[in-house]
């Protein structure tokens, strides 16, 4: 009896000292970044996110840079005998920018926060591009008329220009940042978001070059024509954003990140079930025929 008790004690000591085996390593991903399967599943989403971010940054950065040029028409020009104070001019441009930000830019963000889960990301983005295109065309086609008439037309032009920033933030300037963060699987999300953002910065470079062309030193008539052409080009860029958003951008409203991930896994599982499995050097279809 004592021998049996000693054996059981030894067994219990051995079982208590044993550590549980480590968990198995996670399975490798079924496909990698920029593989054919990635391009088939997410290439369209990456294209839409990158192109939309590129287009909106072309418009947004150009609009900000053109603000000083527009202010030079809006403000009273000093006489030739009076030297222009650079600091006062810079302060007045900053003051005008602050007014536009308070009246249009910041309210546009808050409108997006309130309506983004009621209207949807895609609809807000299309709406923003649409109204920005309308404003650019309305302000660009009769551009010289606004500055050749009385003071009221100048104020009306500034109101139109403020609507550009409102619908930019209540539109693609906000949604182009949100959609890539929700659309892609977790292991690709940050990379695809960074690629989309890099495309946006490329659009900012293009917008800066366009600003330099529009503000190139020339006579007043040629300068007006350049500004009109810049506004019409920006309107065309917004129209291109409407088409890219409508045909290529997916809606993510009402779905959590986990649901997006589960949906992608379901697509992967469905595709893997359709593919023949290899068993001992033969596909499952061939082995099934042999058994029959």
Automatic annotation (TrEMBL):
Highest taxon, organism lineage: Eukaryota
Hydrolase keyword on record: no
A GO term from the CC aspect: membrane
InterPro entries per record: MFS_dom, MFS_sugar_transport-like, MFS_trans_sf
Region (Disordered) location: 1-26, 257-292
Membrane topology: Multi-pass membrane protein
Keywords carried by this UniProt record: Membrane, Transmembrane, Transmembrane helix
A Gene Ontology molecular function term of the record: transmembrane transporter activity
Record flagged with keyword Membrane: yes
Annotated transmembrane regions: 46-71, 91-116, 128-146, 158-179, 191-215, 227-248
Comp. bias intervals (Polar residues): 281-292
Domain called Major facilitator superfamily (MFS) profile: residue spans: 1-253
Localization annotation: Membrane
Major subcellular location class: membrane
Name assigned to this protein: Major facilitator superfamily (MFS) profile domain-containing protein
Taxonomic source organism: Brassica cretica (Mustard)
Taxon lineage: Eukaryota, Viridiplantae, Streptophyta, Embryophyta, Tracheophyta
């Amino acid at each position: 009896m004592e021998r049996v008790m000693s054996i059981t004690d030894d067994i219990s000591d051995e079982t208590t000292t044993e550590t549980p085996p480590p968990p198995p390593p996670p399975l490798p991903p079924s496909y990698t970044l920029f593989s054919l399967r990635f391009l088939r599943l997410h290439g369209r989403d990456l294209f839409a996110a990158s192109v939309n971010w590129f287009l909106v940054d072309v418009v947004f950065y150009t609009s900000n840079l053109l603000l000083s040029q527009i202010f030079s028409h809006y403000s009273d020009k000093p006489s030739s005998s009076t030297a222009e104070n650079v600091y006062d001019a810079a302060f007045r441009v900053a003051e005008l920018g602050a007014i536009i930000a308070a009246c249009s830019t910041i309210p546009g963000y808050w409108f997006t926060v309130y309506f983004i889960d009621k209207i949807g990301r895609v609809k807000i983005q299309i709406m923003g591009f649409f109204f920005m295109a309308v404003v650019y065309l309305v302000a660009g086609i009769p551009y010289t008329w606004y500055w050749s008439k009385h003071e009221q037309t100048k104020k009306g032009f500034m109101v139109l220009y403020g609507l550009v920033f409102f619908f930019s933030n209540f539109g693609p300037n906000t949604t182009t940042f949100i959609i890539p963060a929700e659309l892609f699987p977790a292991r690709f999300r940050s990379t695809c978001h960074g690629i989309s953002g890099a495309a946006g910065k490329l659009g900012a470079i293009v917008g800066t070059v366009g600003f330099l062309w529009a503000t190139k030193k020339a006579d007043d008539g040629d300068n007006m024509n350049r500004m009109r052409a810049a506004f019409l080009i920006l309107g065309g860029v917004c129209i291109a954003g409407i088409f890219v958003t409508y045909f290529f951008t997916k809606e993510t409203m009402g779905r959590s990140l986990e649901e997006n991930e589960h949906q992608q896994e379901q697509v992967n599982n469905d595709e893997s079930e359709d593919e023949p499995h290899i068993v001992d050097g033969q596909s499952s279809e061939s082995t099934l025929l042999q058994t029959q």
